[in-house]
Amino acid sequence: MADPDGVVRVDLVRGHADDDELAAVVAVATAAYLQETRAAVAEEQPRRSAWQITATAPRAPLRRDLGWSAHSL
Hints:
The chain is mainly α. The protein has a domain at 12-41. 36% of the residues lie in helices and 0% in strands. The protein starts with 18 loop residues before the first helix and ends in a 19-residue tail after the last helix. The mean pLDDT is 79.
């Protein structure tokens, strides 16, 4: 468990561990934590330029099948 200051407390529930065994547990837990935090980095999304944001969509292509009648205007 971690307290508000970020200090982690490990409780030995059963058995008797010596200093070397506790150091091994802390080393393995620290390595696993560091590996997890390195892998949990969010990918940076590319930023859109001002030109891309303000650009309007291109217009629809001309319908040449309509010809030059009043309906095509």
